[in-house]
Structure formats: structure tokens, C-alpha cells
């Protein structure tokens, strides 16, 4: 799932993204410190950049139904996956059984898998 999220974010932001786990789990499932690197380039504070990027990510069509929350916090962007997406991801894993890991090994396959899970979500 880590690589799936990384791929979606890199596609939206058109930059390499580092995905981490937040120190405080209440902040979400994942986080990225990308705003700190971009702050030097754009000569803005990481907090301002994180807020701008969080808005861009949360309103992007590729993330609809994917994230429940995208929040800027002290220069980080924190992500909480939607319950519906997690249920669909789990359901797909159960359907694929042993093939699940091999199905999403490559980055390309992970993007396809994520799109498949999301498209099943939008059909409901």
C-alpha cells in the first residue's frame, strides 16, 4: 500500500515523494515531509507549502474516495485512508489470496491495482 500511495502522490505532485508513518498515529496512516524540501525551492515556509499541497491532494480527482483526510501539520502532510478504500483493498486481497503479493509487486501493477480498487469503489 505504501508504494501505491507514493505513486498516486508523485503523479499528482510531479515530484519524488517520501512516505513515512506519523509519529503520532492520530495524525493519520501516512505522512510526507515533501514541504520541507520544496520550502527551499519556493522560498516559503514548509507550513504554507504543506497547506497548499494538502489542498491540491485532497481535491484532486485521483484521490476521491482514497483518503478520508489530508491535513497539513507542522510542515508535514498527513493522510488518513478512507474506510471504504481500506475495505475494498482488503476485499481484493482476500479475493486474490496467494496471488495478492505478486499482483502488486511492480510499481506499474500497484498503480493498476489501486485504480482497480478505486474504480470498484466508484461503481458502488
From TrEMBL:
InterPro entries, alphabetized: Arg-tRNA-synth_N, Arg-tRNA-synth_N_sf
Highest rank taxon of the organism: Bacteria
Catalytic activities: tRNA(Arg) + L-arginine + ATP = L-arginyl-tRNA(Arg) + AMP + diphosphate
Gene Ontology cellular component terms for the protein in this record: cytoplasm
Domain Arginyl tRNA synthetase N-terminal, first and last residues per copy: 3-81
Any one of the GO BP annotations: arginyl-tRNA aminoacylation
Places the protein is found: Cytoplasm
Main localization category: cytoplasm
Enzyme Commission number, as recorded: 6.1.1.19
Region feature Disordered, mapped onto this chain: 101-124
Enzyme class, spelled out: ligase
The entry's keywords: Aminoacyl-tRNA synthetase, ATP-binding, Cytoplasm, Ligase, Nucleotide-binding, Protein biosynthesis
Pfam families linked: Arg_tRNA_synt_N
MF annotations from Gene Ontology: arginine-tRNA ligase activity; ATP binding
Gene3D superfamilies: Arginyl tRNA synthetase N-terminal domain
Family: Belongs to the class-I aminoacyl-tRNA synthetase family.
Name of this protein: Arginine--tRNA ligase
Organism whose genome encodes this protein: Helicobacter pylori (Campylobacter pylori)
